[in-house]
Design brief:
two-stranded antiparallel ribbon; alpha+beta; Alpha-Beta Plaits; single chain; about 250 residues; three-stranded mixed β-sheet
Length: about 250
Amino acid sequence: MPSNNAKSNMNTERRVFIGRAGAAAAMLTLAPGVRLVDLALARSADEPASDQMRWGMLVDATKCAQGCTECVDACNEEFGLEGMGRPKTDAQYIRKIDLKDKTTGKRYSLPVMCQHCETAPCVDVCPTGASFRRVDGIVLVDKHICIGCRYCMMACPFKARSFVHENLTNQVPEAPRGKGTVESCTFCVHRVDRDREPACVEACSKAGHEALVFGDMNDPGSRLSQRLRQLPNRQIRADLGLNTGVRYHGV
């Protein structure tokens, strides 16, 4: 029977082998575009991502309209999740859910996406390091080394990740996707790094709802920080101690 050290070495070697094989497979299926691992290092070629800031979002459920899907539609368009000559899939970075308070009968409608946790379960369980947290708080998946094990999907308490089952064509160059890999909300990191708001926030604002506020949680002068101070807010599954980057008001 192998010793504990031998077993440990075997497991390490197996992870390295699987990681390399998965990376090779993923690179074959990805469209030309930005390697997401590069986004872990810098906002631009000459500006590194900084741990002095933490990107976050406030969802104001009192302003989120029932039946409205502007945020979902904008996200689908931004990342090419629907259309482009492909059959409809289950891929979804944002989903709208409707809730009802059994005590008061009050109904709520709100979007749920990756919560960009400070202590992210998806990152903890990933065997290859494909799931990672950028120093400014954005949680991403490097699809070049994702092996499609889906451990992260099982670990996520928010059901915020999707798996790509189908072949992909006509992709968005700045947001490459890959068959056999896991994906989720990125806070539109490609837009944020160009000082633009995520597509969902922009769409919600254009629709006149203003239910989504995005910004730097570490900057006391940011609109997000001001709103977080003004409005009572909470984390989904605060009992898990994940310190999520997405907060909710009105639920």
